[in-house]
């Protein structure tokens, strides 16, 4: 059996960022608009600090304005809600992202639902989640969008494909399922209580792993030739006191069986921020009554 094709998210994401940068230039020259993204970070979770730093840097790199709001870990919920209310009213801010997870005293759903749905570039607000479920997608979550773009690039038309998604989070599992249903896939969402998980996975043409457990999905769970999308980013101990990043799939085993697979790092991860930037351009266009450019067709 030959080795699986590697799905190069880094290259696809760079291409998408260039398309976004072109759209930002068009908005500036034709409409005198500079999309603005506000990133709110509460507390000092080390991973969240790295993610928000990358989001802010890439926002500036494509020519958009970026606003970083840092709040201390002991901030109370009402202060976060007040901050969002101010950003909702600020016309220079077209997209608002509150980095998750939040400290325990703050309820994430309450915070997310305070964001103006038109500025909800994460696509997590109840209204945007409801639009996705009812087949009227508007601003959709970024990591699921990234998974979909990589699948279309790899396989073309997805109609009729048997998909198993391992993980049922609101951020990844559930919205990926909705996006793939829209593509006419047959979708099963599996989770920690699913019986005969390995057997279920082995029946899928497309396996999406978004469970947050390092290397849980073994090579023997994969149907020969299947496409594997690994959303997991887990830091584990390596040799000589080092650490390394691994996905939710045992890559060395899976690469021998799958037809195509995303590596970790360099697979889904880079797509998330590129899709966030694309959502910010879309949000800016919608807010100004402009047609949003088709940002995803340049990738597929
Ligand atoms: N934490 C982990 N992933 C995400 C994401 O996509 N958006 C936000 N806001 N927080 C996250």
Structure notes:
This protein has helices at residues 9-31, 46-61, 77-89, 108-114, 126-133, 142-155, 173-182, 197-202, 251-254, 268-287, and strands at 5-6, 36-42, 65-71, 95-98, 162-166, 186-190, 206-209, 227-230, 234-237, 243-246, 260-261. With 300 residues, it is of the alpha/beta class. It has two domains: 32-117, Leucine Dehydrogenase, chain A, domain 1 (Rossmann fold); 142-269, NAD(P)-binding Rossmann-like Domain (Rossmann fold), CATH 3.40.50. The strands form three sheets. The chain has a six-stranded parallel beta sheet with strand order 1-11-8-7-5-6. It has a three-stranded parallel beta sheet with strand order 3-2-4, with helices on both faces. The chain has a two-stranded antiparallel ribbon with strand order 9-10. Helix 6 crosses helix 7 (173-182) and helix 6 packs across helix 10 (268-287). The chain starts with a strand and ends in a 13-residue tail after the last helix. The mean pLDDT is 96. Bound molecules: guanine. Guanine is lined by residues 97-100, 122, 142-143, 171, 272.
Radius of gyration: 19 Å
CATH topology of the largest domain: Rossmann fold
Distance between the termini: 27 Å
Mean pLDDT: 96
Order of helices and strands: EHEHEHEHHHEHEHEEEEHEH
Proportion of β residues?
Answer: 15-25%
Name of the level-1 CATH class of the largest domain: Alpha Beta
Ions, cofactors and other ligands present here are:
guanine
DSSP helical segment count: 10
Q: How many strands, what sense, and barrel or not for the largest sheet?
A: 6 strands, parallel
**How many structural domains does the protein architecture include?**
2
Helix/strand-derived category reads: alpha/beta
> Regions with pLDDT < 50 over 5+ consecutive residues?
none
> Main sheet: which strands, in order across?
1-11-8-7-5-6
Name of the CATH architecture of the largest domain: 3-Layer(aba) Sandwich
Number of strands: 11
């Amino acid at each position: 059996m030959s080795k699986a094709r590697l799905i190069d998210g880094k290259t696809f994401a760079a291409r998408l960022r260039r398309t976004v940068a072109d759209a930002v230039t068009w908005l500036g020259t034709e409409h005198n608009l500079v999309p603005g993204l506000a990133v709110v970070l509460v507390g000092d979770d080390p991973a969240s600090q790295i993610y928000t730093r990358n989001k802010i840097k890439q926002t500036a790199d494509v020519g958009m304005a970026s606003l970083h709001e840092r709040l201390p870990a002991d901030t109370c919920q009402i202060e976060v809600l007040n901050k969002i209310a101010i950003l909702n009213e600020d016309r220079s801010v077209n997209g608002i992202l509150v980095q998750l997870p939040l400290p325990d005293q703050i309820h994430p759903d309450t915070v997310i639902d305070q964001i103006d749905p038109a500025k909800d570039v994460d696509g997590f607000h109840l209204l945007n989640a409801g639009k996705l479920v009812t087949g009227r997608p508007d601003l959709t979550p970024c990591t699921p969008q990234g998974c979909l773009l990589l699948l279309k690039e790899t396989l073309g038309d997805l109609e009729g494909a048997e998909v198993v998604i391992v993980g049922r989070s609101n951020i990844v599992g559930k919205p990926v399922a909705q996006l793939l249903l829209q593509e006419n896939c047959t979708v099963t969402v599996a989770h920690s209580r699913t019986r005969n998980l390995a057997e279920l996975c082995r029946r899928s043409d497309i396996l999406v792993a978004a469970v947050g457990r390092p290397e849980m999905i073994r090579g023997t769970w994969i149907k020969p030739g299947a496409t594997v999308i690994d959303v997991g980013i887990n830091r584990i101990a390596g040799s000589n006191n080092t650490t390394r990043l691994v996905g939710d799939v045992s890559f060395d085993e899976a690469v021998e069986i799958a037809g195509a697979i995303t590596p970790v790092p360099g697979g889904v991860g880079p797509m998330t921020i590129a899709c966030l930037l694309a959502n910010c351009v879309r949000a800016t266009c919608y807010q100004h009554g402009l047609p949003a450019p088709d940002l995803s067709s340049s990738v597929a």
